[in-house]
Amino acid sequence: MSQDELKTPCFIIRDEILRKNLTDFKRIVENVYPDGIIGYSFKTNSTPYILTKALEYGCYAEVVSDTEYCLAEKIGFPTDKIIYNGPIKSKETFKRAFFGRSVINIDSFRELQWLKEFSNNEMPRSIGIRVNFDLESALPGETSTGSKGGRFGFSLENGDLHRAIAVCQNIAGVKPAGLHMHVSSKTKSVDIYQKLSETACRIIEDEELDIEYLDIGGGFFGGNDNGEAYGKYISVIHDELERHGVKDICLIAEPGASVVATAVDYMSSVIEYKDTSYGRFVITDGSRLHIDPFFRKDRHLHTMVSQSEKLHEKQTICGFTCMENDRIMTVENESELQAGDKIVYYIEGSYSMCFNSLFIEYLPYVYAEENGSYKLVRDKWGIEEYLQKSYIRGRSDG
Q: DSSP secondary-structure letter at 363?
């Protein structure tokens, strides 16, 4: 199948870029930490085709819910190659992860109670603990939460982290052997990872922990640059750990956007255009909901595949929905778009596919491209897919 044969709107997964990003990150981590682990973030883009590629390229699955844990198993990840994070774990899946030797980073005191129930000296178990600390005070303006503070993990400042570690240390057969340091940041700067590493070292020293692994989390920048950006992060983490004498550990990194964003494009077709006193509006079969679900962007890296050689002064590219604000971007002095023309948007693989809406139209096509050849990896949803779990007349037994 050629690109001309693709049905729109659609996402296009570029196999070679995805493979290169994942293997570059893995190579760079393992060059410094031979036992290092790359845990691909399911929440960033859980398209099954992408998940199978992450498995194929040697990644672990990083999941944050029962649903994602079950999906990882269904895709074929062994349970000991699953990293189980997040605050909404169920007791049933937690138990399966515990006995399946998954990497578990606990997030709440209720999970400590489950550890007490499941632990025994005959099967010693290493457990990680997610750290909550005030990164915003250390690096003002760099965190996503700002002055509101983060809600995940055990607070370092109020003593909950110390108490959680103490509880772990007193559970027979359980060892607090890992720290999970993930913090959502706006800037993705290397300073974030220097501070995360420094704080982890301080906790290790203050609590006298015998650490087996440091899970630095995700939130990296990079992709499609031969691993140059990834290397800067790993270097600053390594230097900080070395400075504090923390050696011979496993480093876990949980990339999502930095490995998948540059590997996915989005393509839509022009339906028509209309002129008003406010200018030209170009109607497409795509939507802002597909590539900008939070309505934050006003520009996209793009290419227009147009029949026209003329340029138009100003065109507002709009989506298929009946919302006036379904306006993807405004372009100036670019190809005058006609019905049937295509617009390809680049770097659209991060989160947007997971946030796709069922508003008016349902989930779009997804193709994968390798060496110029395309294959369908997810069909467009129609009414059958939409109705598949619905009970039109209701059920009395559920």
A: P
The pLDDT of residue 397 is 81
At residue 171, what are phi and psi to the nearest 5 degrees? -95, 120
What residues does 329 pair with on adjacent strands? 317
288 Cβ contact list (under 8 Å, min separation 6): 295, 319, 325, 326, 327, 328
State the pTM of this model: 0.94
* CA distances to 292, 301, 327, 385 from 298, in Å: 9, 11, 9, 32
- Side chain identity, residue 279: G
**Rounded Cα gap, residues 226 and 23, in angstroms:** 10
DSSP state, residue 143: B
| C-beta of residue 116 within 8 angstroms of C-beta of residue 171 | yes
Report the phi/psi class of residue 101: left, alpha or beta, with left for phi > 0 and alpha for psi in -120 to 50.
left
Closest by Cα among 121, 72, 122 to 93: 72
DSSP bridge pairs for 6: none
Q: Which amino acid is at 202?
A: R
- Tens digit of each residue's pLDDT (9 = 90 or more) over 112-151: 999 999 998 778 899 999 999 999 999 999 888 998 989 9
DSSP H helical ranges for 57-210: 66-75, 91-99, 109-118, 135-138, 160-169, 190-207
